[in-house]
Model the fold of this input.
Amino acid sequence: MNGKKKIEEMGFEESMTALEAMVKRLEAGGLDLDESLGIYEEAIALRDHCRRILEESERRVQTIAENAAGTAVREDLDLNV
Amino acid sequence: MHPVSAVMEETITVTQLNTRVKGILGTAREVNDLWVAGEVSNFKRYQSGHSYFTLKDAGSELRCVLFRADAARIGFELTDSLEVALFGSIDLYVERGSYQFIARTARRGGRGDLYARLEELKARLRAEGLFDASRKRPLPLYPKTVGIVTSPSGAAIHDMVVTAGRRFPADLLLAPAKVQGEGAAESIAAGIALLDRAGVDVIIVGRGGGSAEDLWAFNEEVVVRAIAASTVPTVSAVGHESDFTLADLVADVRAATPTAAAEIVLADRHDLSRRADGCLVRAGAAVERTLLRMRARFGRADTSLSPRRAAELVAMRSLEADRLSDRLDAVLRDRVVRMRGRYTAAASMLERAARDLVPIRASRLEAAAGRLDALSPYEVLGRGYGMVVDAHGRALTSAASIGRGETIAVRMRDGTVDAEVKDVRSR
Done:
């Protein structure tokens, strides 16, 4: 996609922004059918990617505290929720 | 109604009346969970550990009780003539028919001191501009990591973790803090700074509900300044809806509760999913409009090239366009990749067809032109031929005299069709 990042490497915000930009381009018109379909194809991939992020992301819940040496240490937090 | 008959209707015992008054006092907001300030006198601690004393000011006295468990939490000794503020509620001692103040916690200095300090601090920080609306920053739409400063054991962190689990997926990073009592303010301030350095995208600072005393750390200057100094946006979530602290004034966004804070910081997953789907629906509609536009263009070009077969060709092309449109619908439902290949094939087929037609038409037109000398052109037109003329109305007899992109017209029996030349091929 125009020498930009691979979709899999994109974050949610980036994907959503790209997706919205594509809609704007398509809605502005002036593209031939082949270009339109190319963009549409990318839009599908981005939408699927957004869904994957929303549904499949692992979330970490951690605590952070400074130890005696002043280094920030992270630990998993288990609240049994 | 006569007063006597009212008495006749209901006669209750002293105990019943006192119990009734106790009930009224126990539910009256005006005398429950409040601070009262005055000077301690007649202080006496009993064997049980409970303390009894009188709190007085220039005009009045109040009998007070401080139970052992509460006394242990205060952190200083109450003594006679000490100016204090007590937090607690009025209660009626049914046996004596007298009311007393059940103190649950206390502060040195009394009301004047405590609230005057708060008001002074608020005014000073406001003058510095720390509460200005212009300082408020927007929250990130899709934070990767949400920092939280609160107690690791309270209801607040539990509520926030549970709520976050239903929302936009983000990591949560908790800086455990002491949220009430000695050193709480410093602990909260340190947590904010620590999370800021750790590179979180937004920080929620808060705790669950409690008394005004319990929430007091969130009024301390060190906390307010730590929130103001945070380089990432902050959300305050202190106590309940009705609680307001200086932390709420300085934070970029004030949430009514910790749960509400998690909801403000993390968008609803289904809303986001719907938003992405909405983009796709709009994109699909735009592609379809492009398709319709192309179909219309194809249709006009065909008519101009071959008036005789125009109707037939247009019908054929629109059929193809319809098929392509159907395919596009399939694309909208499923994968575009395979469809795109097919579409490309169909499009090149169209192009080929249009290309092949031009020489055939050119020869027909030449033959027709040869006969124009002998026959009335209008009679010829009546037989289904078209006369091709240039922009000035001159008849065109040779493909070589027509350039790509030129405007030509085809005169038919009952009218003229204006057309644009797509391509020219000489034999």
Observations:
- Chain A touches chain B through 45 residues (CB under 8 Å).
- Chain A has one domain: 7-76.
- The mean pLDDT of chain A is 85.
